[in-house]
Amino acid sequence: FTAVRYPYLKRGNYSFLSDRHLGFFQSILSPHQVLTDEINDLSGYNVDWMHSVRGSSRLVLRPKTTEEVGAILQYCNAQNIAVCPQGGNTGLVGGSVPVFDEVIMSLGLMDAVISVDELSGIAIVQAGCVLEKLETILHLNNLTLPLDLGAKGSCQIGGNVATNAGGIRLLRYGNLHGSVLGLTAVLANGQIMDCLSTNKKDNTGYDLKQLFIGSEGTLGVVTQVALHCPSKPTSVQVGFFGINSFDNVLETLRLSKQNLGEILSSCELIDQSSLECVTSQLKLKSPDLVNHFPFYILLETSGSNADHDAEKLNSLLEMLLKNGTIVDGTIAVDSTQATNLWTLRERIAEALASEGYVYKYDVSVPIRQFYQLVDVMRARLEKLPIRCCGYGHLGDGNLHLNITSQEYSSELLNKIEPFVYDWVSRQRGSVSAEHGLGLKKRDYIEYTKSPTSVHWMRRMKKLFDPNNILNPYKIFPGTLNE
Ligand code: FAD
Ligand code: MLT
Ligand code: ZN
């Protein structure tokens, strides 16, 4: 185990991988489903997207069916082998990679789109299907995804469900607790739990599928998902506004909601520092606005009548300019321009990562306090970091506070944490709005959840996974084996 940032972690009392174990896996899977070459095969699976957490697994298993997942977990549970489920490995909290030598279960070969029904809007998909691939198929059926995020080219629907991913359309379609109609999950003991309902309404007892949404691979491995998908909008428009104060950002949000109503599908904030980072690091062109502004809002509408939607967005722009809420604004004239504007928002994470070490915070805060935390941190950190910036899902009250430095510095970290969590907690916000807790945020769960809630979460974990083989060291502080 090489990640020096977590020296306090102790390996659980799990079995070490033996030739006998390997022999079993090789007997139930084909050779290309069992990867053991540490340098050529395993290195990418052992390190996270941020390159901040590294495990030392010696085995990646790539099941193709729910039954294979069941057989693997049944064996691991009986043999006391720890398992780390992995989707597209785009998670941002160190949840998708092993901490020690957990066996990695990669869902990448389970990528079939099983069925898509335009009339009901229901798609049934294997968990390892990459989000962008699913979107392409849905578009052919006049449907679209209820979620969208910058990682769509690599992340998988199962990983999205396991993290309850939010993203840039949540404002319009809500989160996966609403869009997932059913799922199949394999429990730690190998039992297959079939909750693959396609009913929109089903009040027969507890809604167990909800437990797996956002459980980050700690309660079961999701193998199939039934997703409710909205109709593909035939008219999508994107506006980009330059704004000179945060009060006016809030006013823009209020007026956009009021005037765009049902067609508003995204309202994202980008501050000046984030825009500067994405344009300079990735050599992208800034939008054609008269000036630089402390804040930018990217607005998207999705509807079914281009004339009607354009009229609404244009009159909003006119009104905002006239009453001085925004100083300048542009509306994309075609899909290329729209994509270029979205790129400026969606590639901020990548741009920040290319700048050096990133201290990444993903918080929910009351909307009026949305940007205060960035100002507070800038004043607190002074010249220590390269940059301290804020962007995110304004319409959902979800701020991404990011701080970068040339390399990891414990001095900087100690100035940020736990201060940042304490600040969020005092606003009764959430220390992880959409990325989950994984390994990196697990020690801060109680800044958002009450001790009683955490106690009952631990009891649920014990019930579903008594031997704690599924993604140990994640979500909960300490070890569950203690
Ligand atoms: P992984 O990273 O592989 O895994 C994430 C967690 O889920 C791990 O704990 C893993 O053990 C578990 N897991 C994965 N698959 C399964 C399964 N089938 N069954 C059980 N457990 C499983 N997140 C947002 O919410 N909103 C955003 O806008 C957003 N944008 C992003 C942009 C970029 C550029 C990047 C790199 C990440 C972004 N994320 C965002 C983070 C987000 O969590 C992931 O992109 C995505 O949801 C994870 O999917 P994945 O398939 O990569 O899962
Ligand atoms: C985003 O909204 O861009 C993602 O959640 C990634 C990030 O927080 O940087
Ligand atoms: Zn986000």
TrEMBL record:
Residues 53-232 form the FAD-binding PCMH-type domain. Its cofactor is FAD. GO terms for cellular component: mitochondrion; peroxisome. It comes from the Eukaryota. Transmembrane segments: none annotated. It catalyses: (R)-malate + A = oxaloacetate + AH2. Keywords: FAD, Flavoprotein, Oxidoreductase, Peroxisome. It holds the Pfam family FAD_binding_4. Its main location: other. It is found in: Peroxisome. Gene3D superfamilies: 3.30.465.10, 3.30.70.2190, 3.30.70.2740, Uridine Diphospho-n-acetylenolpyruvylglucosamine Reductase, domain 2, Vanillyl-alcohol Oxidase, Chain A, domain 4. Its EC number is 1.1.99.39. GO terms for molecular function: (R)-2-hydroxyglutarate dehydrogenase activity; FAD binding. Catalyzes the oxidation of D-2-hydroxyglutarate (D-2-HG) to alpha-ketoglutarate. Also catalyzes the oxidation of other D-2-hydroxyacids, such as D-malate (D-MAL) and D-lactate (D-LAC). Exhibits high activities towards D-2-HG and D-MAL but a very weak activity towards D-LAC. Belongs to the FAD-binding oxidoreductase/transferase type 4 family. This is D-2-hydroxyglutarate dehydrogenase, mitochondrial.
